[in-house]
Design brief:
With about 250 residues, the protein is an alpha+beta fold. Helices cover about 35% and strands about 25% of the residues.
Length: about 250
């Protein structure tokens, strides 16, 4: 049976004499393992489509749970990500995380689109690696259903929009004002949120997918956002990522 998918190669390994085993994050089928025969040959007709980070419309031959690449129409190879170790490490990390949260047989289009938007912006030099990582992590947490409630203090109910500052309880996904964050229940889980970071959180969680990187933030606030985004997402993923360890040695 033939099967058409849109997907991105998030991992590759040798297969047979000159083939590859591709790990492909797809729009509607989760993560698939795809055999690409002859893909390591420089004469391969689908050479660009079977490279790491390549996004393509793929025609697969499915037999039971096994998939073999028949043909592929390249959408973007994001080849510029290989120009620097920073961008390559960031792309590898984002691919690993996006693949780890994909659900087989479910709609993963938001997850895939976030990954593609991130790789596009970084490969075109539109944003820094640190900025891309922070936005990717927080937006992914929102896509997974963990958008924090930040409009008001979870303790006393006072609106935080006018103050635009407070403390994020990263475990419960709620904001607290300065007075309420002193409660014993909240101790050790609070991350301070400055006005700039507060604005960034609201923007990232609510912006259209193609506009998530279209905001400005100064370097100090970006450092705050980067720490918060990583802590908030990875508390929920509860998994070790080797690509994250490598990325952090660079940035």
């Amino acid at each position: 049976m033939h099967h058409k998918v849109k997907g991105i190669v998030i991992k590759e390994s040798p297969y047979g004499e000159n083939g590859k085993l591709l790990t492909v994050l797809t729009e509607l089928d989760g993560v698939l393992l795809v055999k690409a025969k002859g893909a390591r040959s420089i004469l391969a007709s689908n050479l660009k489509s079977v490279q790491l980070f390549a996004c393509s419309n793929m025609l697969l031959y499915q037999k039971n749970t096994s998939y073999t690449l028949v043909d592929a129409e390249l959408i973007d190879d994001f080849y510029a990500l290989r120009d620097s170790i920073d961008s390559f490490a960031l792309a590898s990390y984002c691919c690993e995380v996006a693949g780890s949260v994909a659900v087989r047989g479910a709609d993963n289009s938001s997850n895939l689109q976030l990954l593609l938007n991130t790789l596009y912006a970084v490969s075109r030099g539109m944003i820094s690696v640190k900025f891309a990582k922070a936005v990717f992590e927080f937006r992914l947490a929102c896509i997974l259903g963990f958008t924090p409630e930040i409009s008001e203090c979870a303790g006393c109910g006072s609106p935080l929009e006018t103050k635009k500052a407070g403390f994020l309880d990263i475990e419960d996904g709620v904001m607290l004002c300065a007075a309420c964050k002193e409660s014993p229940e909240a101790a050790g889980r609070m991350i301070p949120v400055s006005p700039s970071v507060y604005d960034a959180l609201r923007y990232i969680s609510g912006a259209k997918s193609g506009r998530i990187f279209s905001f400005l933030i100064d370097e100090n606030a970006l450092d705050e956002l980067a720490k918060l985004s990583e802590a908030y997402l990875h508390l929920r993923l509860d998994k070790k990522y080797k690509t994250l360890d490598f990325l952090k040695t660079i940035i």
